[in-house]
Amino acid sequence: METAQLAYVLLFLVTAVLLFHLRRGGRSAPAKLTTAHRPHPNPVLGNTVEFIRNRRRFFDWYTDLLRASPSGAIEAWGPFGAGHAVTTACPAAVEHLLRGNFGNYVRGPSFRAAMSELIGDGLFAADGRLWSVQRKVASYAFSSRALRRFSDDVLAVHLRGTLLPFLDAAAASGEAVDLQDALRRFAFDSICHVAFGVESSTLLETAREDSRHEALFAAFDAAVEISFRRALAPFTLVRKLTGLLNVGSSRRLREAVGVIDDYAMSVVESKEAACRDREDGDGDGDPDLLSRFMAAMDEEDGGELGAMFPTPEGKRRLLRDVVVSFVLAGKDTTSSALTWLFWLLAANPRCERRVRDELSRSPDGGGGGDAKGMHTHYLHAAITEAMRLYPPVPFNGRVAVGDDVLPGGAAVRAGWFANYSAYAMGRMERLWGEDCLEFSPERWLRDGGEFVAVDAARYPVFHAGPRACLGKEMAYVQMKTVAAAVLRRFSVEVAAPAPAMDSPPAYEMTATMKMKGGLWVRLRKRE
Ligand code: HEM
Predict the structure, then answer these.
(1) Which atom of ligand 1 is nearest to the CA of 124?
(2) Which of the 8 DSSP states describes residue 155?
(3) Do 423 and 443 have their domain in common?
(4) What is the annotated signal peptide range for this record (predicted)?
(5) 76 & 210 share domain
(6) N or C: which terminus of the chain has fewer CB atoms within 10 Å of its end residue's CB?
């Protein structure tokens, strides 16, 4: 490099550091009294170089760092201190973040900005009163009656109508198929059925009558991926520039969101028309999610939500955000858990035999879409154990409103991220014992064979506290029904990645734990 160029680079770095220090108004020094381990930050670039070096094994890198930290917390940051974050794998600290000091930890403006085009004001991105009002309305959609309806009307239809016929065809052909892709499409179709009330399929070509539904699947994938990358990026300059010029990922995001908007708005409008046609309010007894939110906004006094979104356009926009948030919640989570479960069962044939023994003794649901497998404790334990090792949401975080100190002593400053890694927590010897890296559903069973849950702060796979996952029960019904139906009907031989515990498959660095390259299986129909 020329001397002049070198001088410019140095000048740029010095100015940037000065600006950064000025911007933080003298609060630049990290908290002095903290037990959080700091993994060798560079004075200017923070932990960026290590982050780039470990980007393909990010969750394992963090697990290594958290294991080495006596307090179970680490503190890291990006260039010029951007993205300053404390991450913990300690149950007491998770309890504090998600329950004890819940009010101090919010989604925050940067997450909202990164996700705004996709989910706007929907439940996932909302904080404060906007979140709590939505949460209350949404929670009715997860009643036991709604669960039964999900199991009988949605799961049964998609299982018998598309997933099993698709797998039957794969078994007949003898060809390997990507089970992860099939499970993702199945979950997407089911959640769209719940959220939008549409009964389309992206899985079976003969059932793909609605090409808009296929386009919606692709649009969701693109929008989630781009939004997730934005949420991780420490700076917003590139995003703002590409947004202004409508090029690159900003353009792709806009196109994908356009497809989602058209679809969601047309569903909202036809629902409104259907409601007008039944002015007397004579509904079908158990309204779906969209109808619940419409009713909440139309309450006589306008309802609190109605008051927050007084114009018809504003109301429609929120309804769109609500359904999109739900699709997001259910789209990749259950399929991720099932993908890893099938791989782990193939790598541990002893456990697969126990699941099948239990299924052969339990009331036979005929592999159909009912929830009779709900009393299958071993299957429940196997799914829970698969998510301990491969949590569908491996890493999660909030932003601190005020300064705080986590149990264990890690200091968190206002504006910093406060994260927990469910992936690292599932792999901690101090939480699960010496065999923490083994797949052992038995660890969840009492001597009598009943499943025993642990506190969510130790197993935060579904989050914990006031913002804990609303769809947990629904997810278990879905996962157990699908696993039971597939294992009863087929012998599943994993073709790739090789099923061996000592060489686990790679994952993709996405919001949900996705197996890199998919899960390729050959199926043989059982007698
Ligand atoms: C194995 C499957 C699933 C796992 C592991 C899971 C995990 C999670 C996690 C970690 C969160 C917290 C997200 C955050 O606030 O940062 C969450 C929230 C949520 N989940 Fe799930 N989820 C699953 C399936 C589902 C399903 C099928 C639904 C239903 C459509 C659902 C609905 C929700 C909702 C509505 C929230 C937001 C709660 C709030 O912010 O108040 N989840 N889930």
Answers:
(1) 40
(2) I
(3) no
(4) none
(5) no
(6) C
Is 142 a pocket residue for ligand 1 (Cβ < 6 Å)?
Answer: no
pLDDT-derived band at 283, boundaries 50, 70, 90 = low
What is the distance in A from the centroid of ligand 1 to the CA of 427?
22
Q: What is the CATH number of the domain that holds 46?
A: 3.30.43.20
Q: Tell me what the mean pLDDT of segment 3-23 comes to.
A: 45
Structure tokens at 362: 């339990």
Residue linked to tokens 């699941």: 355
State if residue 471 touches ligand 1 by the CB under 6 angstroms criterion: yes
User: Given ligand 1 and candidates 188, 333, 334, 476, which is best to mutate, with the most ligand atoms within 8 Å of its CB?
Assistant: 333
Q: Is the CB of 461 under 6 A from ligand 1?
A: yes
Q: Is 71 helix (H, G, I), strand (E, B) or coil?
A: coil
- Residue 157 exposure: Cα atoms within 13 Å on the Cβ side: 18
Pick the atom of ligand 1 nearest to 126's CA.
40
CB of residue 249 inside a 6 A radius of ligand 1: no
* Percent of the chain predicted with pLDDT > 90: 61
Query: For the chain, what is the mean pLDDT?
Result: 87
3-state helix, strand, coil in the chain (%, to 5): 60, 10, 30
351 carries a ligand binding annotation: no
pLDDT greater than 90 at residue 212 = no
**277: enclosing H helix or E strand:** helix 248-277
Q: 250 lies in which domain range?
A: 101-393+428-525
